[in-house]
Fold these 2 entries.
Entry 1:
Amino acid sequence: MNFVHQASSGGNQTATVIALCSMKDFNLAQETCQLAIRDVGGLEVLINLLDTDEVKCKIGSLKILKEISHNPQIRRNIVDLGGLPIMVNILDSPHKSLKCLAAETIANVAKFRRARWAVRHHGGITKLVSTTDIIGSTAAATETRCPAPHHRGNRGPREVSGPPPPAAPIAAGLGQKTGAGSQVALLDCAQNSAEPAQSSLYDARDVEVARCGALALWSCSKSYANKEAIRKAGGIPLLARLLKTSHENMLIPVVGTLQECASEENYRAAIKAERIIENLVKNLNSENEQLQEHCAMAIYQCAEDEETRDLVRMHGGLKPLASLLNNTDNKERLAAVTGAIWKCSISKENVTKFREYKAIETLVGLLTDQPEEVLVNVVGALGECCQEYENRVIVRKCGGIQPLVNLLVGINQALLVNVTKAVGACAVEPESMMIALAILLWFHKNLAFRKPPPSRRLPKGLVHQRTGTQLPRDRKRKRPKWLAGAAEGPMGPAEDSGGGTLGWPIAWLTAPVFRQQQFSSGHLPDRSASRSEFLSGWPIVLAGGALIAMAPGPLFACSPLPTTVTPTR
């Protein structure tokens, strides 16, 4: 690094380039090397080289900055040293390799809020959007290489001396390899053109510039203000054009940007207007798992709209979504796919299709041994599907009631809301209701009020309120209200015929049948609700639960309750 500093101070371009090349021989992906460059003042030198007029020095500096900017500390140091405004200015350079490196480095640096603000503040969003305009850049290059013929009037053909000029290299780069080693696929996007083989192919260098620009936009789109800036700069139509290419390295950042922006209503309307859903569905059939994940997540964001759900079905997107459920190794992709299925299941026509594709049976199988991100979406999808009788029967026959009820002991509010809706929908069927209440009452009688032996009792506040086991002071877990006060209903204790307490889990199960709208809006039941409000609408269900509790037989013979039970506080 000292050699680079001396060479750059002396103004020797060749020595500086040689020094930069020698730095590339080190393992720049290793954190030790990255921090060593920073500690000896290398970042200041590399950023100063970006302000020179020597293209080779800029390229060498950006190649190193691109590698070391994966380190979070280096990113912040680059922003502190004012590196982002210089990189944004480089985006105006006519040198395409320089623009690629600058955009890719911006993509690495813009991972935190202050960096994204700096890119927008210095006009970087508009410049990045312009880098994705392949059609504009290719058209300009075509006009430069092949000027329009002059109107000759009555004059004869112009005499040309010397050999004819070579053909315009408009298809340069066709068949070449990119840095990632993948084949560059050029798109024939000519409209009303008689010569598609000559004038309609994207230049491979323009494709690479657009890919790097899309990467930078993807990083910047984490910010709401940047999303608006991208939309106002005309980014949606350009991203829609890029979606038509078959180059996967290009598609991943493009779909990733659309996925981030689709959380805003304005973007969802623009996505419908630009007919992007069709291309998202097409890319679900890709072999690239990352591309499948981002396409499914984009559909999940957009499928809140009924028209979008219909478009997904019309373009054949439900079948690939159902087939992707069978691959459970990639949890991120599974969460995106189940989320898309959940939102698409809001439409009854889509639910019918999912039943044809055996997706409901697969969803029931995903109720166990999955992360919460997947479970929230799986249970949400089942809650929508179980609005129909045929699907409720499928869930019951596949053994889905018990794992659904078991999820009621969690503390994830989004998961609890979806579980109550799903169990409430299933509880409309008497058979499903009996199974669910049996499980809850078993849980209630065997776990909720089992008092620990005297030798294991601890001071107040150190006994687990459900199991009665010892809790260390530093590991006491905050529990949801409906479990912490299992002995109390929302209006106080409710005694059953055996002298025990029916408790809150039964109310938690049965209330969604009649209060689904309140639960689906994200509001949990209020413990302070009045008796008349709470019992309104479901006396038959509560009576059925009481009858089950009074029924003799082996169902509850495993652990009879004493006459009076006082839960340990």
Entry 2:
Amino acid sequence: MAEDDDWLSNLLWTDEAHFTLRGSVNTHNCRIWATENPRTVVETPLHDEKVTVWVGFTTSTVIGPFFFEEMRDSGFVTATVTGERYADMLQNCIIPSLADKHLLERTIFMQDGAPPHIARRVKDFLCRSFGMLKDNIRLQCLTITPDMLYSAVHNIIPRLQLLLRNDGEHIEHFL
């Protein structure tokens, strides 16, 4: 970050999501802030027909969408996201797409800590594809100033007070 003023443009924001034929939302992965009553209950079937999609984006482009599916006698069906499937998608779809768009060398790959993302095969592949991750983390840690540390620690009090005022609910929309 200290060497690249345009680092934010190089972040590849990524996630997977389920889309159903009935339009129901996977609220485990998706939060919707609305003006209507947030405690309204909408009943939906336990297992709705769905597709699972991965997409990534930077400030200038979209990578994907790529679908988690497998071929069966009846045709393509949605497949569970596992470490093996995610590693295959990285190797066969995501990394080649980044390379085709000449983004591979400068991309900062962002993902959450979902179990498929931290599978050994995935981590090994990402280290090979994106260079020496540990060295880059060590270098970035050296750029953290005492002022940044002080600010991070002292910001916790207002955040905790906000959490208390909101009964422990999400506070991101207040920050």
